[in-house]
Amino acid sequence: MSEETVNLSPGGAEAAPQQNFGVQRIYLKDASFETPLGVEAFTQEFQPKINLDLNTKNKRLDDQHFEVVLSLTINAVFGDGDNAKTAFLVEVQQAGIFVLDGFEPAQAHQTLGTVCPNILFPYAREAVDSFVTRGSFPALMLAPVNFESLYVSAMRQMVEQQQAQADA
Hints:
By secondary structure, this protein is an alpha+beta fold. The chain has helices at residues 105-113, 115-134, 147-167; strands at residues 20-34, 49-60, 65-78, 85-101.
């Protein structure tokens, strides 16, 4: 026979399960750096337009462990339109294994989409800056990202798409 422990709050009501969040490991999953223009990138005044593409995804590893991957793609471009030339392209996939226990599904989803990327972003930003400077370009410090706002926008967009599909 197994023992079961029930936590009770001071009022005698059953307490909510205790939440446990932790970072088990942070690692660089994949990275690449390209300089398609080669030496031509260094012969002109360096004032490119910087394009940042940011994405997150997560995967359940077991009941409590999740892998979260923050993907950054940075493209530095000279010129516009048909004359655009890529000075450099950096792709970084910064990942982490996180422990989430005792979270309701909606809370876990939000934590994986906001808290975890917030933890991973400084590591990804440092990796990007390191690749860029090692490529002999000026340092590139990416501005902080508000993952809470991105999450809310993505959820709003998903609800709107579901409503549009239901109306169709």
